[in-house]
Design brief:
Elements: H1 10-28, H2 38-41, E1 45-46, E2 54-55, E3 64-67, H3 68-74, H4 79-84, E4 89-93, E5 98-102, E6 115-119, E7 122-123, E8 145-152, H5 156-159, E9 166-172, E10 180-188, E11 192-202, E12 208-218, E13 223-224, E14 237-238, E15 244-255, E16 258-270, E17 286-303, E18 306-326, E19 330-350, E20 356-376, E21 381-404, E22 407-418, E23 424-436, E24 439-450, H6 454-458, E25 476-490, E26 493-512, E27 519-539, E28 545-557, E29 570-580, E30 591-600, E31 603-604, E32 610-611, E33 614-625, E34 628-635, E35 643-645, E36 654-656, E37 661-669
Parallel strand pairs: 6-9
Antiparallel strand pairs: 1-2, 3-8, 4-5, 6-7, 8-9, 10-11, 10-37, 11-12, 12-15, 13-14, 15-16, 16-17, 17-18, 18-19, 19-20, 20-21, 21-22, 22-23, 23-24, 24-25, 25-26, 26-27, 27-28, 28-29, 29-30, 30-33, 31-32, 33-34, 34-37, 35-36
Length: 670
């Protein structure tokens, strides 16, 4: 799109009307719909929308789900790749971190603070940057994931802060699903290699155990940056600086309603972009992320009509950034952010009252330590040393009220407060109308908030030291209304059409301050987002599967006619998989191939340059050969050149992404 252009949304809206009419006709053709077996009417259970199990059609949300089979079939390597396959989501990468875009909103450099990340229902965002880790810094191997659920829209009525644009819940597998010892090894482009060893078992007392350790390394390719193309800066080529090394440990035990979980991850990532005005092509520039989480969960049916779930959890996060500056003399600057916290949440779900399903609970988190330090190593100098503690508390009540056999009212209200911010009430309303037993119309409305995090509040240093000056901030707020139609005539077919509008106020963003050599966070922006999404999925008995998802969204800052940075109007996802037996690969079950195409429309950079849209295709073939599962994947199959918008701290306006890459993976179970 050229500057000032406004492509007409008629095509997606007309397509949506046609699809809606087709759905209505299809539903009316189901003459014996009441006679369908229950397993065909029931969709996969989801737990994230309401914090208890319900079917996708029943949930007061339009939930996206990626299963363990999907992860295996399409060869996903990171949580970011899983999320980028979902309707309305896209991922950007700046050679350091992966950033999640939700329905046209993805501020470059934002640490995924507006999405709440859960693992088995437990909060995973840290308490320093509030970041949701979705790249190689996510401390969980995808081979251990049973499914990933994403609930779009504000979720503060259920989960509190950070459930702003959506909630991601990663649900892990158990020892029964990974029975016995298992070894997995893989190798790929740019010197990448990975190994995993896991053991899953059930003991004589019925306890379920899973322990796994993974190690991955990548040399990375040399990266070219035109902004540094000069003889004194190696002609813009950063050599051997895109490396990535990470280690992951996971353990989980389940027995008679009790579950104990440990997740630990360490990642060291080279930073070839020379971010924050560093000296270019210096091998000492790197980021180190360390994540540790422990959790205990207990569930019990107190009475036939009353269930209880209680959780205790704790976490530790540490970020270390080494920055090399040529003032002169060349100085190594070290930036450290450390967070420690513990918390609890308790929930009761009651069906004691006719036509009502009540859920209420209490969440509490204690931020025992939040520390940020910035120093020069040699010669020594200190620019920042802040420490804070705090807490976050929330009380909520939900009601699922069957107004009629075909109409359900979902209501929710939560009061929450976090240290340094005012408390507030956040409601949720949802009407689910059953047009037929397999067709649901949903009208949804909710609000959410996000208090400024410790980084935004405390990181205050003059730019002469290369840092940020911050002023007083208020909590962000969002209000979203959505109308959705879901149709699932069988367990093999699902269709969806939804339209939404979001209004964001007090958006915290980083921009130029009054003084030229300083930067500041502020609440200066208000944003409106309108959009339409459609999705169709069909599975056939012979094993073939097709899924097509399209999203059109228009996100705009109310103070300027310019489009938002990194905000595509169009998103397209196409997946096709089927069985395929290649000659010479032995007998047994046929192999499977999967093709995925992801299209992202044109986007604007921070300098208002236009990045063209692109479509990337991936191809993966999997086959069991004897006792070994073999997976061969080709990513960016057509070797398309594409780039993602860069954030303010990077001199380059856009970051070029990888061309065609390969991966071969072997998994052996003893």
């Amino acid at each position: 799109m050229t500057r000032g252009s406004d492509p007409s949304p008629r095509w997606p809206r007309h397509a949506g009307l046609a699809l809606l009419c087709a759905w209505a006709h299809h539903a009316s053709a189901q003459t014996d719909i009441a006679q369908l077996p229950l397993e065909q009417l029931m969709q996969m259970e989801v737990t994230t929308a309401s914090r208890y199990a319900q079917t996708a059609l029943e949930a007061p949300a339009v939930v996206s789900v990626v299963t363990a089979e999907d992860i295996r079939l399409f060869g996903y390597r990171t949580l970011g790749e899983v999320l980028s396959s979902m309707r309305g989501l896209y991922v950007s990468y700046d050679r350091s971190y992966h950033y999640l875009g939700t329905r046209g909103f993805a501020t470059p450099g934002d640490y995924n603070t507006r999405v709440l990340l859960l693992v088995n229902g437990v909060r995973f965002n840290d308490n320093v940057y509030d970041q949701a880790t979705i790249g190689t810094d996510f401390p969980l191997d995808l081979d251990l994931v049973d499914r990933v659920e994403f609930v779009p829209g504000p979720g503060s009525a259920v989960y509190g802060a950070n459930a702003f644009f959506g909630v991601v819940n990663v649900i892990t597998r158990n020892g029964r699903q990974l029975a016995g010892p298992q070894v997995s090894v893989e190798a790929g482009s740019h010197g990448s290699a990975k190994g995993r060893f896991s053991v899953g078992t059930v003991d004589t007392h019925g306890g379920d155990w899973l322990v796994a350790v993974s190690r991955a390394t990548s040399r990375g390719a040399d990266q070219y940056f035109s902004a540094f193309d000069a003889p004194t800066t190696n002609h813009g080529v950063a050599q051997r600086l895109d490396f990535d090394r990470n280690t992951q440990l996971f353990a989980r035990m389940q027995h008679e309603g009790l579950a104990l979980t440990l997740a630990h991850g360490e990642r060291t990532k080279g930073t070839p972009t020379a971010a924050f005005s560093q000296a270019f092509n210096d091998p000492r520039s790197r980021f180190i992320d360390t994540n540790t989480r422990v959790a205990a969960e207990y569930t019990r049916q107190l009475q036939p009509s009353l269930a209880f779930t209680g959780r205790l959890h704790a976490g530790h996060y540490r970020f270390v950034g080494d920055y090399v500056y040529d003032y002169p003399p060349i100085t190594l600057n070290r930036d450290v952010g450390t967070g420690q916290w513990w918390g609890s949440d308790f929930q009761w779900v009651s069906t004691a009252f006719a036509r009502h399903k009540l859920a209420w609970g209490l969440d509490y988190r204690r931020d025992a330590r939040i520390k940020q330090v910035n120093v020069d190593i040699d010669p020594p100098a200190s620019y920042l040393d802040t420490r804070r503690t705090g807490h976050a508390v929330g009380v909520y009540l939900q009601d699922e009220f069957a107004l009629a056999p075909t109409l359900t009212l979902h209501t929710g209200l939560r009061w929450g407060k976090q240290s340094g911010s005012a408390g507030g009430l956040h409601p949720r309303l949802g009407l689910v109308y059953w047009w037929s037993p397999v067709t649901a119309v949903k009208l949804l409305h909710g609000t959410a908030y996000r208090p400024p995090n410790a980084y935004e509040r405390d990181y205050a240093v003059d730019m002469a030291g290369g840092m940020v000056l911050t002023h007083g901030l208020r909590s962000e707020k969002v209000r979203t209304t959505e109308l959705a139609l879901e149709h699932a005539p069988t367990g093999a077919t699902r269709m969806l059409l939804t339209a939404f509008r979001s209004q964001v106020s007090n958006l915290v963003s980083l921009g130029d301050a009054a003084v030229a050599d300083r930067l500041a966070f502020s609440n200066a922006r208000n944003v409106h987002v309108d959009g339409i999404e459609a999705e169709v999925e069909q599975r056939w008995q012979r094993g073939a599967r097709l899924r097509v998802a399209y999203g059109w969204q228009k996100a705009r800052d109310t103070s300027t006619p310019e489009p938002l940075t990194n905000s595509p109007r169009h998103l397209l996802k196409v997946q096709w998989s089927d069985t395929l037996e290649l000659p010479g690969l032995g007998q047994g079950k046929p192999g499977q191939y999967a093709v995925e195409a992801i299209g992202i429309g044109p986007r604007r950079t921070l300098t208002n340059a236009r990045l063209p849209g692109h479509i990337l295709a991936n191809l993966v073939y999997t086959k069991r050969m004897g006792d070994v599962d073999v997976s061969v994947g080709v990513y960016n199959l057509l070797n398309r050149h594409h780039a993602d918008p860069a954030s303010y701290e990077i001199r380059e306006d856009a970051i070029r992404q990888d061309g065609r890459t390969y991966r071969v993976k072997l998994t052996y179970g003893f």
